[in-house]
TrEMBL record:
It comes from the Bacteria. The lineage of its organism: Bacteria, Bacillati, Bacillota, Bacilli, Bacillales. The keyword Membrane does not apply. One of its GO terms (molecular function) is cysteine-type peptidase activity. Keywords: Hydrolase, Protease, Thiol protease. GO terms for biological process: proteolysis. Belongs to the peptidase C40 family. This is Endopeptidase. InterPro entries: CwlT-like_lysozyme, Lysozyme-like_dom_sf, NLP_P60_dom, Papain-like_cys_pep_sf, Peptidase_C40. It comes from Listeria booriae.
Length: 339
C-alpha cells in the first residue's frame, strides 16, 4: 500500500506538471498569434490615388500622354498625378529640356539631358525604383515622393523610424547626409510639401475609388471612419480590425449582410468573379501573405481604378492591386452583395 504522504506528493507533482504544460501551450498559442500578426505583410502606404490632378501648368500637362505611356510599362499608371506634380516641381513649371531633372539619377551633371521624352523615361524609371522600394519596406507614399529628391536611402531611414514620412524626419535625414558629405545642406527637406502644391484631391473624395453611390456609398462611408487605424490580428470591431474583421463589421452594420469571420471563409461563401467583371464592392482575395496553413490569407474591398480598401500591416488604408506586393499575391475576386 502506498503511503498517503507519497500520494499527496505525487498529486502535487502532477499539478505542477499540468500547469507547466498549460503554460507552455499558452505561450505557443500567443506566439502563433503574434507571428500571424507580424507576418500579415506591411506592403506600404502607396495610397497614390488619394491625389487627383492639381494645378498643373500647360508646359507640363502636354507631356501627360508620354508620362502615362512610361508609367504603364511598369503598371504604375495610378501614380500619374504624383508624377505630374513631381515634374512641375522639378521643372519649375517651365518648358525645361530635362523636365524631370533626371540627369543626376544616372550620374550626370544637372540638366545634361536635353530631350524631354528621354528625361521622362529616366525620371519614371527612377520613380519606379523608389515605388518598388516603398512597397518592399512598407513605407508611405510621401516617403517615396521625398526619395525622388533625396534618393532611395531615405526609404531605409524611414523604414527604421516609424515607416511614415514627417517633416522632422526629412530634416534629420538632410542634416545627417550633409554632415557625412561635408555640405552645408542636402536636398530639399520640404520637397513633399512643395510637390503637393500641384496635387488635387481624388475625384469623389474616396481615395482613388470610383464615385461611390447608393448602398456602396453607405458601406464606404462607414469603412472610411476607420481609415488610419492600426492593424490588429483578431480585431473585428472598433478600434481594432484585421483584414476580414473590418469587412464583417461594416457589411453587418450598414447592409445587414453577415459575412463569416476569416478571409478564407469569406472567399468560400462569395460568388467568384472574373477580372473583367470586377466591380466596386467586390472582395479581393490574396494568398501567401503569411503562413496560415490555408490558401486565402488576406482580403480587401475593391473600390475601382485598380484600388482596394483594406486593413493590412500598415493599418486601414487604400492600396493598389495593380502593382507591387498585392499584385504578386493576388488570388481571386468574389461578390457578396449587389450594389
Amino acid at each position: 500500500m502506498i503511503p498517503a504522504a507519497k500520494i499527496k506528493i505525487g498529486i502535487k507533482i502532477g499539478k505542477i506538471v499540468l500547469w507547466f504544460v498549460v503554460g507552455i501551450l499558452l505561450i505557443i498559442i500567443l506566439a502563433i498569434a503574434y507571428e500571424e500578426s507580424e507576418n500579415e505583410q506591411n506592403p506600404g502606404g502607396g495610397d497614390a490615388t488619394s491625389y487627383g490632378e492639381g494645378n498643373i501648368p500647360s508646359e507640363v500637362a502636354i507631356w501627360k500622354p508620354i508620362m502615362l505611356e512610361e508609367l504603364k510599362k511598369y503598371g504604375l499608371e495610378q501614380y500619374i498625378y504624383v508624377v505630374m506634380a513631381i515634374t512641375t516641381q522639378e521643372s519649375g513649371g517651365t518648358a525645361s529640356l530635362d523636365i524631370m531633372q533626371s540627369s543626376e539619377s544616372i550620374g550626370l551633371p544637372p540638366n545634361t539631358i536635353a530631350d524631354p521624352v528621354y528625361s521622362i523615361q529616366i525620371g519614371v524609371q527612377h520613380f519606379k525604383n523608389v515605388i518598388d522600394k516603398m512597397n518592399k519596406f512598407g513605407v508611405d507614399i510621401d516617403t517615396a515622393i521625398q526619395s525622388y529628391n533625396y534618393g532611395s536611402g531615405y526609404i531605409d531611414y524611414i523604414a527604421k523610424n516609424g515607416k511614415k514620412h514627417t517633416p522632422a524626419l526629412a530634416q534629420q535625414f538632410s542634416n545627417i547626409q550633409a554632415g557625412k558629405l561635408g555640405w552645408t545642406s542636402y536636398g530639399d527637406p520640404s520637397y513633399v510639401d512643395h510637390v503637393k502644391r500641384y496635387m488635387g484631391a481624388a475625384q469623389g473624395g474616396t481615395g482613388g475609388s470610383t464615385v461611390a453611390t447608393g448602398k456602396f456609398k453607405v458601406l464606404m462611408d462607414e469603412m472610411l471612419k476607420y481609415k488610419g487605424l492600426p492593424y490588429f490580428f483578431g480585431g473585428a470591431s472598433p478600434p481594432t480590425f484585421d483584414c476580414s474583421g473590418i469587412l464583417q463589421y461594416c457589411f453587418s452594420k450598414t447592409l445587414n449582410i453577415q459575412l463569416p469571420r476569416t478571409a478564407q471563409e469569406q472567399y468560400n461563401m462569395s460568388t467568384k468573379v472574373p477580372p473583367d467583371q470586377l466591380k466596386p464592392g467586390d472582395l479581393v482575395f490574396f494568398t501567401g501573405t503569411y503562413n496560415a496553413g490555408r490558401a486565402v490569407t488576406h482580403v480587401g474591398i475593391y473600390t475601382g481604378n485598380g484600388m482596394m480598401y483594406n486593413s493590412n500591416g500598415s493599418g486601414v488604408e487604400y492600396s493598389t492591386i495593380q502593382s507591387g506586393y498585392w499584385k504578386d499575391h493576388l488570388y481571386g475576386y468574389g461578390r457578396v452583395a449587389a450594389f
